[in-house]
Amino acid sequence: MNGRFQIAVHILTLLHSAGDESLSSEYMAGSINVNPVLVRKELSNLRKAGFVKSKEGNTGGYMLAKPAQQISIADIYKAVEQSPLLGKARNVPNPACPIGQQIDQHMYALNTQLIHLVTDHLGQQTLKQFYNQFK
């Protein structure tokens, strides 16, 4: 798992905490302590997923596109994570080996099972419930 999930949750939690006020990518980058370009990249992904909307101009910025109670933590995970939880070997196993012939398919199945467990667990919590921990 890479850091995109944590950055996305941080962004959405900030946006929820702002209520009807829009936030700049620079402000969010300051809270996350990363480059604003990285925040804008994640904001673009979150906008495509329907979680974020933006407004142009001097009073512009970013806001949640839907209420936090309608966004599950699993939805956020699915929107940003693209790599297998268990990683992916860069080598090609030996096809002459009985283990090497099948290892990729079995690792894929194991990874799929793990993703289901993770998303089932994360699906039990909304962004609003996550935010409530900060009060």
Question: Could you give a quick summary of the protein structure above?
Answer:
The protein is mainly alpha-helical.
Task: List the main descriptive attributes of the protein structure presented here.
135 residues; mainly alpha; Arc Repressor Mutant, subunit A; two-stranded antiparallel sheet; 50% helix; elongated
Structural write-up:
With 135 residues, the protein is mostly helical. It has a single domain (4-134), classed as Arc Repressor Mutant, subunit A. 50% of the residues lie in helices and 6% in strands. It is built from six helices and two strands; from the N terminus they run αααββααα. A two-stranded antiparallel ribbon has the order 1-2. A hairpin with a 5-residue loop joins strand 1 (52-55) and strand 2 (61-64). Helix 1 (4-17) packs across helix 3, helix 2 packs across helix 3 (36-48) and helix 4 packs antiparallel against helix 5 (103-122). The protein is elongated. The model has no long low-confidence stretch (mean pLDDT 91).
Topology:
Blueprint: H1 4-17, H2 25-32, H3 36-48, E1 52-55, E2 61-64, H4 73-80, H5 103-122, H6 127-131
Antiparallel strand pairs: 1-2
Structural class: mainly alpha
Radius of gyration: 18 Å
- Strand order across the largest sheet: 1-2
How many domain modules?
1
Biggest sheet features? 2 strands, antiparallel
Instruction: Encode the helix/strand succession as letters.
Output: HHHEEHHH
Note the total helix count.
Answer: 6
- Report the uncertain regions: none
CATH overall fold name: Arc Repressor Mutant, subunit A
Number of strands: 2
The overall pLDDT, averaged over residues, is 91
Q: What top-tier CATH class fits best?
A: Mainly Alpha
The helix fraction, in percent, is: 40-55%
Report, as a whole number of angstroms, the end-to-end distance. Answer: 28 Å
> What's the CATH H-level superfamily name?
Winged helix-like DNA-binding domain superfamily/Winged helix DNA-binding domain
The assigned CATH architecture is: Orthogonal Bundle
Strand content: 5-15%
Query: How would you sum up the global shape?
Result: elongated
